[in-house]
What does this fold into?
Amino acid sequence: MTSQLRLAQVDEASASQKVAEFFRKSAGEWRSQRRYYTLPDGETKEMVSYITIRFLEPGCDELRKLAELHQLSDPDILTCGAEVSWESRDSVSQKKQSKGATMFGVAGSTLYRDRGFATTKPVTAEYYFLEPETMCLRTEYNGSVFEEQLKLIGDKYRTRQTIISRAGEQQMIGQYLEKRVE
It folds into this structure.
C-alpha cells in the first residue's frame, strides 16, 4: 500500500511539473486563426482571436481566489495556473465576436477554471499529457462534453482542437492555429 501511495505522489508531482512547464511555454501573446464546424451540416465559421496568456505562480492572489471560488479547503492547493484573455473577430466581416478572460489553476490531475466554454460558472476539467508538448482536457457540465487537445510546436506555434458533444453526439469541432506575436 505504501509503495502505491508513493507512486501516486510521484505521478502527481510529475503531472504538476509538466503542466507548469506547458503553461510557462504558452505564456505570451498569440494570434489564433479559428475555424468552427457545426455538425452534422458542416456549417463553417472562421474567426481570428488575439490571446494573452500569463503564467500564475503558486500562492499568487489569483490562484487563491480561484481556490476560494471552488471552495477548496486549502487556499494554496493550486500548484500553478494561467490567466488567458482574448478578443475575437469574424474573419470575413471583422465584426467583434467576443472578448473575455478566464483563469486556470491546477491541483493533481484536475484543472480548475473560473468559467467554462459555455457558462460563466466555475468548472473543472481532467487533464493529461500525450507527450510533454501535448495537453489534453476533458470538461463536462450541463449535459455537454468538451474535449480539447493543445499542442506546442516549437516556440512559435500551437495547435488546438476542441470537440463539443451532447448526449453522445458531436455538435461542433473547433480547430485553431496559433502563432506567437513577436
In short: The CA atoms of residues 105 and 182 lie 26 Å apart.
